[in-house]
Amino acid sequence: MSDAESDKQAAAEAAAALVEDGMKVGLGTGSTVAYLLPALAQRSLQLRCVATSLATEEAARKAGLDVERFESEGGLDQLDIAIDGADQVDPDGWLVKGGGGAHTRERIVAAAADRFVVITSGGKIVNALVAPVPLELLPFGLPATLRALDPTVLREGADPSPDGGVIADYQGSVDDPRGLAAWLSATAGVIDHGLFPPDLVADVLIARGGEVEHRRVSS
Ligand code: 5RP
User: Fold this and answer.
1) How confident is the model at residue 212 (pLDDT cuts 50, 70, 90)?
2) By the 8 A CB rule, do 203 and 117 touch?
3) Ligand 1 mean position to 119 CA, how many Å?
4) What is the widest separation between alpha-carbon atoms in the chain?
5) Distance CA 53, CA 30 (A)
6) Which is catalytic among the residues 5, 58, 73, 106?
């Protein structure tokens, strides 16, 4: 296994250790989360999980985790912990997410959780966020939405999200993440974007060379 892969695994295992019996758990998406699922299953805890993508849902069930729908009325409406990867983490705890196009569901799951834990290798830690910022757009009016969001490009080869959204990437400056996040959220046709603010993030677990740094961002 490469160093980057063993760092992802170390971060994922450190996050799995934070989960306690009886918890309701949000499962993120991506190659780092792929290490979380067996690590969690191995602990043989009684857990109720929701997944941020069909790929995670399938992999989690295969690992033996109990995954519930997150859309049915009367289902889970709050989570104790959500654990997910990130594409970039800046010094203030701002994240860029959505490399796998799952950012809309990932934000919903993170926001529903009392504690949102980010797991990452050291390579995702940046001094300042840069483009691309993933977007999910409504198909209706897509050309007009893309025009309003210039410079934004459709993500080549990306499937629509499970909710029917079109995945695209904003290619402009990310110097002011809070201002950009507000502008993207306010633009008609944007379902969601991949800029996650520090106030959403409780902890970042960063693995480098087998050591895991535990950074607390907000409580
Ligand atoms: C998916 C995501 C992922 O968490 C992010 O892309 C990191 O993925 P990986 O763990 O594979 O590096 O936001 O939409």
Assistant:
1) very high
2) yes
3) 10
4) 50
5) 9
6) 106
Please choose from 2, 5, 32, 126 the residue to mutate so as to test ligand 1's pocket, defined by most ligand atoms within 8 A of CB: 32
57 in catalytic set: no
Query: Does residue 37 contact residue 139 with C-beta atoms inside 8 Å?
Result: no
The residue type found at 154 is: L
- Residue 1: predicted pLDDT: 84
- CA distance readout (Å), 195 to 33, 143, 185, 199: 19, 22, 10, 12
Q: Where are the beta strands (DSSP E) in the chain?
A: 24-27, 48-51, 79-84, 88-89, 95-96, 113-121, 133-137, 152-154, 166-170, 190-193, 195-196, 203-208, 211-216
pLDDT at 162 exceeding the cut of 90: yes
Query: Which residue type sits at 180?
Result: L
Question: Average pLDDT over the chain, rounded to whole?
Answer: 97
Residue 95 dihedral angles phi and psi, to the nearest 5°: -120, 150
Between residues 113 and 1, which one has the greater pLDDT? 113
pLDDT 10s digits, 28-83: 999 999 999 999 999 999 999 999 999 999 999 999 999 999 998 888 999 999 99
pLDDT at 198 over 90: yes
Q: Residues with Cβ within 6 A of ligand 1?
A: 28-32, 84-87, 97-103, 106
Nearest CA to ligand 1 atom 8: 30
Q: pTM here?
A: 0.97
Give the atom of ligand 1 at the shortest distance from the alpha carbon of 85.
4
- Short-list 87, 82, 56, 78, CA closest to 162: 56
